[in-house]
Write a structure and sequence with these properties.
CATH superfamily of the largest domain: Spore Coat Polysaccharide Biosynthesis Protein SpsA, Chain A
Radius of gyration: 25 Å
Low-confidence stretches: 250-262, 393-437
CATH class of the largest domain: Alpha Beta
Mean pLDDT: 81
CATH architecture of the largest domain: Alpha-Beta Complex
Order of helices and strands: EHEHEHEHEEHEHHEEHHHHHHH
Number of helices: 14
Shape: elongated
Number of domains: 2
CATH topology of the largest domain: Spore Coat Polysaccharide Biosynthesis Protein SpsA, Chain A
Structural class: alpha/beta
Helix content: 40-55%
Strand content: 5-15%
Length: 437
């Protein structure tokens, strides 16, 4: 019996229209142009149309195809379940629309089969890529990857391209650490792989946007942000422990020095700036949305109040590495006080504008508000760092321990390595696997 080298998983949910032509095209490519033994696994997750019936028909008809059904939806859930039990050397997946040119599959898996790399991704953002898609998706994709590099320290270029592969031995070590069941699963796995010191191979791809895509862009974006916040908090608190599987972990610098702490000023400024840009966009969007139904000052108050709460929560977790319920209410209260400064500056700017021009244009209003918000942001960062979160950056919510004589001792502060979750903790299963190999 031949050793199965590549298992290509195609997650599907309500894809009755695209499933047959895409699977036939993929199988034809594997038969004619792919030199390794391969299987196509159709992962139906929660379909309510005829997708599962079509998948079972393809399973019976094509020797290279098998169909697996799961009641609950979720691409991440499907990939984790199938990859965890697969017997192939390399585990891959691609989107059913085959937006990525299939000629990239061989360059994707070959470095993994040779042992050169551990995980491979298709990238639409490399210089050699050829991509056809609308400006909206392009902007969202690039902004998301900038967020990953800024907030998570990621070095891979494209987290969201539906074209990835991983060696089975590395997947078995990392999959138990993943939690997401949806679209963020890809990003989570990549971030964990980098922190485990794995080598990630990137393949520039030819990619054409699927105009019939039913992905909820807004919902997916919010889920991705929640996932980033969860990972960042887990690394900061040390609750996510990633084993060092190969080479130096990217949580440690190449020169062997200690990783940058959450309290590092440059990192805090970068994270604060990214969150600030998002908050400003949300603020201006709310302001323009509400402007026709209320006066400028009332609109400004409501828009600032709603975005201030989200801004404080995001900076608490991502900029200053604080999570959990302890002191959360106090931080929000102080955040609202700093919001008062922004309100005073923007309200004052609007008042001056109204006094100088009884009917300013909407563009002038926005320009004035942007300037006032920039000044408010600088003051807010200083207050966040020194007053709002300054005393809670380390050991937030943890009571001091008692010494043998009953006195209160200073809390033990974890090292940066421990807080980043990069301590070398190879599980017994991983150690046994290395020993037998």
């Amino acid at each position: 019996m031949k050793v199965l080298q590549v298992d290509v998983v195609v997650p599907v949910r309500n894809e009755e229209r695209d499933l047959v032509p895409s699977i036939r095209r993929l199988v034809a490519y594997l038969r004619e142009s792919f030199p390794f033994t391969a299987r196509v696994t159709i992962a139906d997750n929660g379909s309510t149309d005829t997708t599962w019936a079509i998948a079972t028909g393809l399973d019976r008809e094509l020797a290279e195809v098998r169909a697996v059904h799961m009641e609950l939806p979720g691409r991440g859930r499907a990939l984790r379940a199938i990859w965890s039990e697969s017997d192939a050397e390399v585990l891959a997946y691609m989107d059913v629309d085959l937006s990525t040119d299939l000629n990239a599959l061989l360059p994707l898996v070959a470095p993994l089969l040779s042992g050169h790399s551990d995980l491979a991704i298709g990238t639409r953002l490399a210089r050699g890529s050829r991509v056809i898609r609308g400006p909206k998706r392009e902007l969202i994709s690039r902004s998301y990857n900038v967020l990953l590099r800024t907030l998570m320290g990621a070095r891979f270029s494209d987290a969201q391209c539906g074209f990835k592969a991983i060696r089975r031995d590395q997947a078995q070590a990392l999959l138990p650490l993943t939690q997401d069941t949806g679209w963020f699963f890809d990003t989570e796995l990549l971030v964990l792989a980098e922190r485990a010191g794995l080598r990630i191979h990137e393949v520039p791809v030819d990619w054409i946007d699927d105009l019939d895509s039913r992905v909820d862009i807004i919902g997916t974006a919010l889920a991705d942000l929640r996932g980033m916040a969860r990972l960042g908090a887990g690394f900061a608190r040390g609750t996510i422990q990633v084993p060092q599987l190969r080479g130096p972990s990217l949580a440690t610098r190449r020169n062997g020095s200690k990783p940058v702490e959450f309290s590092s000023l440059p990192l805090q400024i970068a994270r604060f700036a990214v969150i600030g840009v998002g908050s400003t966009i949300a603020y201006l969007g709310l302001y323009l949305l509400l402007r026709g139904s209320m006066p400028a000052q009332a609109d400004n108050l409501i828009s600032l109040l709603l975005t201030a709460v989200a801004n404080t929560a995001a900076n608490r977790r991502l900029t200053f590495g604080i999570s959990g319920r302890p002191n959360a209410a106090r931080h929000q209260f102080k955040g609202l006080l700093t919001f008062g400064i922004g309100l005073a500056l923007t309200a004052g700017a609007l008042a001056v504008l109204d006094a100088g021009s009884p009917d300013p244009g909407r563009g002038t209003e926005i320009a004035v508000l942007l300037g006032a918000n920039l000044v408010a942001a600088a003051l807010r960062f200083a207050l966040y760092r020194t007053w709002v979160f300054g005393r809670s950056k380390r050991g937030a919510g943890r009571p001091p321990a008692e010494t043998d004589d009953g006195a209160r001792a200073e809390p033990v502060r974890p090292s940066p390595v421990e807080r980043f979750g990069s301590t070398v903790q190879v599980t017994a299963m991983t150690a046994q696997r290395e020993k037998t190999s």
